[in-house]
Amino acid sequence: MTWRHLIIGLIGFASLSLASEARAQIPYRYTPPAGPTLPNQLNYFRRDVGVLDPYNAFVQPQRQLNYQLQSMVQRDQADTRATQRQLERIREIRESTAAPTGVAAGFMNYSHYYRLPSGGAARTRTR
Asked: Rg of the chain over CA atoms, in angstroms?
């Protein structure tokens, strides 16, 4: 019994020590509400460039990314507006087929299949 506990404990400890990070945690990246704290123009003076100059290494790719992101946002907003306009046209064209509120329902109303007796007592029909 104690050997089993020892083996299970060793296996559990080994599995915990091999895990590098929790998969459920999303990496959090803080973005200041007022925008970036350092201006992009400081990238001109960076010394950690490789073969390229600072403009082609940092500034131009960042401008290109910003332009692509802005065009994606504008395209998404235009698509959203077009979809809203189409939905408004559809609502104008089609009138609702649903009954208005307050109309009596006829759920399981089978009274038109059976003839009710016209007198006080029920009569049987014979042929």
From this structure: 37
How far apart, in whole angstroms, are the C-alpha atoms of residue 10 and residue 16? 10
Contact of 43 with 58, CB cutoff 8 Å: yes
**Under 8 Å CB-to-CB from 46, ≥6 apart: which residues?**
54, 57, 58
Whether this prediction's pTM lies above 0.85 is answered by no
Cβ burial 61-91 (10 Å sphere, 16+ → b, else e): eeeeeeeeeeeeeeeeeeeeeeeeeeeeeee
CA 67, chain centre distance (Å): 25
| Model pLDDT for residues 23-67, shown as the tens digit of each residue | 556 667 777 788 777 777 777 777 777 788 888 888 888 889 989
Please give the structure tokens belonging to residue 5: 């506990």
